[in-house]
Every structure is written in structure tokens, then in C-alpha cells.
Amino acid sequence: MDQLIQTLIIGFADGLIFALVALGYTLVYGIIELINFAHGDVFMIGSLIAFALIAPTSVGGLGFFQITAATPVPLMVGEVLATLAITIVLTAGLNMSIERVAYRPLRHAPKLAPLIAAIGMSFVLQNVGVILAGSNQRTIENIFPTTNLLSTFGITSVSLTVSQVFVGVVTIPLLFALSWFVAKTRQGRAMRATAQDPDTAGLMGVDVNRTIAITFLIGGALAGAAGVVQILYNNVTVWNLGFRFGLISFTAAVLGGIGNMRGAVLGALILGIVSAMSDRYISSNWTQAIVFGVLIAILVFKPSGLIGQQLADRA
Amino acid sequence: VSSTTDTIGTGPGAWFGHIGAALSGMAAAYRSDLRRRRRRTTILTVIIVVGLLYPLLNQYFLEGFSRNVFPLPLPDATVMTFMTIFAIMAVGLNIVVGFAGLLDLGYVAFYAIGAYVAAFLSSPHWSALGLNFTFLGNVAPGAQGIHLPFWIIVPIAVLVVATFGALLGAPTLRLRGDYLAIVTLGFGEIVPLVFKNLSSLTIDFNLGPINIALNNVNLTGGVQGINPIDPPFLPFLNVNFGARSGPLAVYLGLVLLAVTVVVARNLEHSRIGRAWMAIREDETAAEMMGVNTVRTKLLAFALGASAAGIAGAFQAAYLGATTSDFFAFSTSILVLIMIILGGIGNIWGAIVGAFTLEYLNASLLPYLGQRVQDSAPFLPNPAQYNFLLYGIILLVMMRFRPQGFLPNRQREAELSVVGVEEAETAMVEAAAEAESDTETVHELEPPLDLDNVSVAPPGQDETGFDARAPETPGEARDL
Lengths: 315, 479
Fold this sequence. Notes:
The complex is a heterodimer.
Chain A: H1 2-32, H2 39-54, H3 73-103, H4 112-133, E1 138-139, H5 162-184, H6 186-196, H7 198-203, H8 208-234, E2 236-237, H9 241-256, H10 261-282, H11 284-301
Helix pairs in contact in A: 1-5, 1-8, 1-9, 1-10, 2-3, 2-4, 2-8, 2-9, 3-8, 5-6, 5-8, 6-8, 9-10, 9-11, 10-11
Chain B: H1 11-24, H2 26-36, H3 38-68, H4 77-99, H5 108-121, E1 122-123, E2 133-134, E3 146-147, H6 150-172, H7 177-197, E4 201-207, E5 210-217, E6 233-234, E7 239-240, H8 247-268, H9 271-281, H10 283-288, H11 293-319, H12 329-342, H13 347-375, H14 386-400, H15 409-415, H16 417-437
Parallel strand pairs in B: 2-3
Antiparallel strand pairs in B: 1-3, 4-5, 6-7
């Protein structure tokens, strides 16, 4: 039982990171029906940027912030926030430029042309990752205390670490902020309108190109945030991280019903827990196969996903 | 080219019928081709003859020249063999992606299955389970494990892989375009993982008469893979086509490629080939015209996959070893780039693309890398960043020449934005012209206008072809 709860906690934390990346897939798919294959690699670039900012020069970082476990807490919070801000700005800009350069010229091409271009972009970004950080794994030291937060309540058999709380503290507000943005703001309404029918939205005065660019901007920002959280939580990054991570997140988006934001978060949490369970109870060798098995099963038996595609809601 | 392929049945019998018809029609096809397009056929013949002589030339002259006199980026026998292997796969993937328009991102799975079929049937692997069986194999009497000759393994691999192709195809038939791409990608990731992980299987299954008890059985060789695998061997002539056989393996690869090409070409022009093109262009319309879309798509998957079965079996037998690491996602994409580069839908384009890219990948880039290392080590090594180059190739091709360098004429119009728009403008103009011919002047009307029913409604000629723009570009136009 304790083991199960422990696995659920780990899976939930993983799932929150998947959710940030999955939202990028689902937003873009919702608006231009493109599986943005390069999205996982934008996330990878985000984690490399965070690595460069945080890690000291001795392990290959730029050492801007040099966060270590010994850094005083207020300074650490400030530096983590600064890292988040810088990474988010860079990845958001990167994702928007990718759209501008690679996908916009293909907007009216056959549907699979942008998909193939996205695969090409994915390879380009992976190689950029190799050029930036080399082909070996990059690791940073764990900056969070490893104490069990639950021990203050007298529970020792299940552990909840500061890093897991950190994941929640960063991701959950972002998820709510995005939900608010899409539901309540003028730009969010433009996104929903464009997702429903780009031509009509254009006739109604929505700047479709700008709306799509902003969608990519948001997706890139979320991927950057996920990159920062990922490296602080798992302490490791590598150039091909985006491929595996991206596929799991894409699976999450499909599981929830692609185009549906709440579905993407739900799917990501489920997949986080499923893969944690598989790591724990089967073998981590099989986790990837199980995730893809889930993906295939869903696409085959319920292509609309768990929540399904509510057209009005699919921005 | 094909005269006997107009009626196609299903099942393995019909499949072998195709191969037989294709092979027997070869000489006649060449003669008629020469009659119709003399210049093109002559050029092709010259290219093929030079290509056939090249492995020998390389072996006895060029290789020594390159080694002793002046280094040239020449493909050696291994590179050439892999050029043929990739060309076989490109021709097969072209059936799925180019003819039927089903984007398959997990093609490497079939390559892997083909390789492992060869490994299972001609290596000492099963001796651990006490399975020892030799049939016409080129091994010492009493050898451990199962040993079948390569010539029997290839058809078996084709059948097994075609079955897996249909198995993958069956549940994915409802999916369109990009979802299909992702499912195939997932399949392509799962298959090598299965081969990698099934190295210590413990099953205790006891159900009445069925009693399976496996204790820590190494089914697939795990990370190490399986070796040694018997090389292809011709009895009586005593010829061995293994990794050290030089040009011989290249010729075997070319023979296998030729068989694949002949089958693919005949399929393209057969009833099933036309059905593939119909569902590629508009699945709903094809279904309305009586095309059995389920069977057609399944056949595309199965037949396309079987080429990868040939390639996989040949690769495993040629190298004498197989591991799951050979079969990465990047290989699927590499084959896809080959057919995109050459021209989706065109068999010759697929072959040219495969030869070019594999040559680039295995010969030219390492050569340039070596030169860069020698003369300017501060520059980035091109061989290390090959996939950066391929990524850029994909991006640039999609942007500026999506139809490839040897385009299929039909696909060209479908694929290029400009082409679609031009075709549409032309069609609308033609439609307008047709309207002004019928003296009543009215706006372009929907095809189902019940007030104006006539034998050939405006915008259509007597043959029933709708001359109007069928739909807006980018809508339900799956590749």
C-alpha cells in the first residue's frame, strides 16, 4: 500500500511535467491540426538552457546562477525564478520562430508536408542540442533538501520530497494561468475562434497569423518551463531527451483527446502514473513499450480520447 | 507492362502469381519500352550497365587507386550492399507512402522483424532450447541450432513480415493521416524494444493440455542480439555472399532489388495500384467508386512491409549478426527522406534517393569528415552532424520541392502548393468555359442542383470527370 502511494506521488510529479509539454502539442494541434514533432525538442532545448544557466562552469554550464544545495533559500528562489523567466522567453521565441520559418510557408500545403517539416525541424534541434551541450548526458547536483516532508506528520513509510512539491508549485499555477488565458482573455477567444474555423475567424477580424504565432509562443513557454522543472527535478538532461519525453507527452495529449486542454493534463497525469507503475512493478525496460501500447490502443479504440474533442473547447 | 495483373485475388497464391507474372513479363516490357521511348530507355540501360560493372571495377581497380594514389570518396562493397538494402526498403516504403498515401513512420519495425526471422532460422541461437535442425544449410553436419538456407528464409521473412504488416494495418484502418503516422511510429519503437528486452523470459502456463513452462529463456538475444548468422550461400556453385565476399554481395543485393522493383512496378500499374492511388487522392470518393478500402490498405501495408522483410533478412545474413540497436527511429526517417528526396510515388526516385542518401551517409560524409579532420580539425565534422543535414534536407524539400527530384507527375500536382493552386485556377477556368458554352449564363452551381439535372452538368464532361476544383487545398488531402 505504501509502495503504491509512493508510486502515485512519483507518477503525479512526472505527470505534471508531461502535462506542460502535452499542452504545447494539444494547443498547436487544436489550432492548425499539426503534430508538432519538434515540440519535444524545444522542451529539450529548454532544459539545456536551464542547465547552462544553473550549472557551474566545472560541469560545463555557463554558471550564471550557480545554484547549489548550499545557496540560501531566498537567493535560490530568486535564481530559480530568473532561470525560469529567461528559459521561457528563449524557448517561446524559439518555438515562434520555428512556426514562422518552417510551418507558416506550408500552411496551405497538403497536411503531411508540415508534419514532415516538423520531423526535419526535430532533427535540426537535436543536433543544435549536440552542438550546444555535446552528445553525453549533462547532470547537475540536486539543489533541494532530501528530507521527507511527510515525516513532520509522523509518516515515514511514504516520502514526499521538496523537489516533488517544487514541481507542483511551478506547474499547477501555470496550468491555471493558461486555462484562464484561453477562457477569459480576448487573445484566448481569438485562439478558440481560430481553432474552430480559421477562415471565418479571419473574416471576423481575428489576425489568424498572429493568433497562431501566439499559440506557438505559449507552447514554447510551457515547454521551457517544463525544461527547467525537469532538470531541477531529475537533475539530468541530454540531447535526445526530447524525443522520448515528447512522445510520452504527445501520447498524453491524445489520451485526453487532442485539442482539449483539460484532457491533455488528465492524460499526462494518467501516463505519469502508468509509467511510474511500470517502472516500479514491471521493469523500466518495458515502460516505453507500455506507453506506446497505450497510445496505439487509444488511437485504435477511441481516437477521440478520454474526454473527446469538444469543438468549442479545443483551443 | 502488366498484362496478367488486371484481376487480383487475395492470399499468398495471388501474391506469388504477381511475382511470376512480373518476372515473365520483363523482357517483353523492355522491348515495348524501347519502342516507345528509345532515348530514355537507352540512357537507363547505360546507367544500369555501368552500375552493374561498377562493383567489379571498384574491387579490382578503383579501390587500390583510392588507397595508394589519391583518396576518393568511393563506396566500398559494404556501402554498396547497404545501398541496395536501403533501396529495397525505399521501394517498399514507397508502396505504402507513395502509392497508397499512408504515412508510415515505423517502417524500421518490419526491417527488424525480417532480420530477426533470418537470425532465428539460420543461427545457433535455438540450441540453448535444444532445437537443432538443419535443412540444406551450409553448415557442418550436426551443427547446433536451426539452419535453413537463405533462399528459403527470404520467402519466410516476407510472409512473416507481410503478416505483421497486415496486423499493424488492421487496427489502424480507421485512422487518417497524422494519427496513422503516430501509431506506426509507436509500432516502430515497440518492436525493437521487444527484441531488446525478451532476453530472459519466464512463463509458467499450465492450462489442461497446453503446458508451457519457460524458465529464464533467452528468446531474442537481448542487447547482444544474435550471431553468428549463416551468410547466403549458393550450393553446387559453392558461392558465399557474406560480408567478406566483396562485389558478390552487391550483386545479390541488386538481384533482390530487381525482384522488388519488378513486383512494385507491376503492382503500381495493376488494379490494386490504381486502387491505392484512388484512396490516396480521396478515400471517400474511392470507396464510393467501389474500391474496397479495407482490403486495399491492408494490401498496401502487407506488400510494402514485405520489401523490408527482404531487406532485413538480407542485412542479417550479410552482416552475420543482428542487434536491436540497428533498428532505430532514425532509420525509419532515413528511408522516408530517401523517397522524399527521390520523389514520392516514383519507384526510380526511391532508388535514386536511397542510393544517394546511403552513399552520402556511409561514404561521402565520412570521407569529408576525414578530410576535415586532417586539414582543418577546428571545423565541425560533417559525418557527426549527418542528421542535422537530413533535417535541413527535409525542411528545404518540403518548402521548395516537395515533389522530390524525380517526381511522379501525378503526385507533383498534388504535393506542391503552387501546383494545386494552378491546377485549381485552370480547373475553374475550364469550368467557366464549359458554362459559357451552354448558353444559359449562371453562376457556378453546386453539382447536385435538382432544378438543372442534365446528362453532363456544367463543369463536367461526358466522361463524368468533375472539372471543378474538388476541394480547398490543405483539407482532407492526406499524403
